[in-house]
Write a structure and sequence with these properties.
about 260 residues, alpha/beta, Lyase 2-enoyl-coa Hydratase, Chain  A, domain 2, 6-stranded mixed sheet, 4-stranded mixed sheet, 11 helices
């Protein structure tokens, strides 16, 4: 994993947790081409080498913005061809995030607009500060969400609410996002990272292969019929039976001690 990325900062916590920060604070962490490329590089790397990581906390630099969306200053005056070429990067970024085997927890610390909302929605779940605001404002610019917004938002909050938000471009608060099902927990700005790291640590303490298999079964199963999803679940389950972690988990329970999972 490369750590000298231009628009991101990466920092390991407790060996198994990665703090990933969108780091363009002077531009409200807006998504430009380089940030898209940096996110593609990082998440595609994790598809082939997780480097012992068991959870990722994704946040934005500063206290005002998680990510303000696409960088419209960079896009100003772009040719159609350049715009589409940039968007191909963002499409690849989304697919790399969704394919990441490591659980991703978005810690939304401020505005998550446009592409920023889509990045947050692509995480496995979201914790948000009470000053966070969300919006998919693309229609106000004559475009539409194109990095998963029309797919991930309805899956989180339902078709009718998603249509209201996407077709109007209206912003909504962290508390509304929690009630609607996009956000799992709302805390103060000061408590946000502690809360995100607490759940990340809980996840990281569980069997890492089991967590990855369960994540995949949920994500893939929701795209299948119930019968196919159940079959996929059993395939994922059966891969855990011959692992050392499965034997360690049962032994630790019977010996009344904390399991020491090795991801084997």
């Amino acid at each position: 994993m490369r750590t000298d990325l231009e628009t991101l900062t990466v920092q390991r916590r407790d060996n198994h947790i990665l703090l990933l920060t969108l780091n363009r604070p002077d531009a409200a962490n807006a998504l430009n081409t380089q940030m898209g490329l940096d996110l593609v590089e990082l998440f595609e790397h994790f598809s082939v080498d997780i480097e012992g990581l068991r959870a990722i906390v994704l946040t934005g630099a500063g206290s005002k913005a998680f990510c303000a969306g696409g960088d419209l200053k960079q896009r100003n005056g772009m040719t159609d061809e350049a715009w589409q070429a940039q968007h191909l990067v963002f499409e690849r970024m989304l697919r790399a995030m969704l394919a990441c085997p490591i659980p991703i927890i978005a810690a939304v610390n401020g505005a998550a607009y446009g592409g920023g909302c889509e990045i947050a929605a692509a995480a496995d779940f979201i914790y948000a500060s009470d000053n966070a605001r969300f919006a998919l404002t693309e229609v106000t610019l004559g475009i539409m969400p194109g990095a998963g917004g029309t797919q991930n938002l309805p899956r989180a909050i339902g078709e009718r609410r998603a249509k209201e938000m996407i077709l109007s471009g209206l912003p909504f608060s962290a508390h509304e996002a929690e009630v609607w099902g996009l956000v799992n927990k709302v805390v103060s700005q000061e408590q946000l990272l502690d809360a995100a790291f607490a759940i990340a640590s809980r996840i990281a303490g569980n069997g890492p292969i089991a967590v990855r298999q369960a994540k995949q079964a949920i994500h893939r199963g929701l795209q299948m019929s119930l019968a196919d999803g159940l079959a996929f679940e059993i395939e994922a389950y059966n891969r855990l039976v011959p692992t050392e972690d499965r034997r360690e988990g049962v032994a630790a329970f019977n010996e009344r001690r904390k399991a020491e999972f090795k991801g084997k």
